[in-house]
Amino acid sequence: xxxxxxxxxxxxxxxxxxxxxxxxxxxxxxxxxxxxxxxxxxxxxxxxxxxxxxxxxxxxxxxxxxxxxxxxxxxxxxxxxxxxxxxxxxxxxxxxxxxxxxxxxxxxxxxxxxxxxxxxxxxxxx
Length: 126
Known about the structure:
Layout: E1 3-7, E2 10-12, E3 18-25, E4 32-39, E5 46-51, E6 58-60, E7 68-73, E8 78-83, E9 92-100, E10 115-116, E11 120-124
Parallel strand pairs: 2-11
Antiparallel strand pairs: 1-3, 3-8, 4-5, 4-9, 5-6, 7-8, 9-10, 9-11
């Protein structure tokens, strides 16, 4: 059964860092673009970052550029999101999603992704 499982969320102070992981099981991520999305209470889901199947294409939302870094380790079937200089407005449930797409492309559009994890909570507070 195809499954994505996020981990690494938690409580961090403003300015702190977290690394989220998105581990796949039941399939290999090699041919899939992976995106990270977040949703805070009362807000719409936001595409945070995505990475193409061969890591050739990466994209970031303007709100996280320079602070977040997406990477993938196909040998571990896992995609990571390193989040630095966290701000209170980064607090949300973060979910990863996978989309089989060629040419190493990726998108920050959530509806394009058919496979989703259940999410991990990130809280940024002093």
